[in-house]
Amino acid sequence: MSRPKGEMKIDDAIHGISTLIEVRAQSVSSQGTGFFYQELSLKDPGKEGQWREITELWLVTNRHVLLPRVYNAETKPTRLTFNLRKVSGDKVVWDPIVLGFEELANRARLHPNPSVDVCAIRILDLLTERIKSGEKYLKWYGVSAENLAGQNKINPHVGSNAIVVGYPRGFYDHVNVFPIVKSGIVATRWGAKFEGNPYFLIDAKLFPGSSGSIVISEPSNIAVENGHLLYAKEKQFAFLGIYSGELYQKHVPIEFDDLTIIRKSGFNVGVVWYGYLVDEIISGNVSLAKS
Fold first, then answer.
1. Backbone dihedral angles phi then psi of residue 47, each to the nearest 5 degrees
2. For tag attachment on the chain, is the N or C end more exposed, with fewer CB atoms within 10 Å?
3. Residue 188 pLDDT exceeds 90
4. Are 209 and 62 in contact (CB under 8 A)?
């Protein structure tokens, strides 16, 4: 399976990059967001616009989406469902792909550092099987290491616009089966590890269900490099990271006879784990089965 560089328009890329995820663990059911990340064959520097083989495709989401917390403890899922967009008559519908725990255990990869709230699930063979079935699917889009900020002449900074593509509270366009796109700005120094963690913050009002959303730079067809103005025919974006949830400050617990209340204050800022962590997860090869 392969795809020529630059084949998709920016709207197609943003609308086809993500999928709704549903997870069942014990008696708990939850929703989140995932997106597609691809490994590509090596580029031939002597060729332009060449086709590249997709050597592997991953569904990326949060660790806490894959392993939801039940009674304040990580719980292994009994099943995970993600979806492709299929054309059925004159409608577009979700076509679910369901993975039980045993299959997830072999496919899912976690970061060597368990505090990193990102995971990846190997899915290329599953999509290939569906595409070969003869059914008609809308085009999907995957980012790769080549889309990381700084790799494609897009260099964000504090104050840069950030776009979050996902399914807040499971909400989306049910007719076209498109995700919701929300915006914010990079709220901390780009490239720095906030409080020593490999993530940055964005100033954005988001909701549960957005967990696992891809965060990208604002699409643009103009860039500046070494003082020179560059122009691209189609708008481009950089892959910034993976949204994980809102950051809160906990206050001193208030004790009652049979009750403890811990008040939390929010700042309308969200945690975004840096995109380079996906390659660390893939190369680290820490499987869910061994965790």
1. -125, 140
2. N
3. yes
4. no
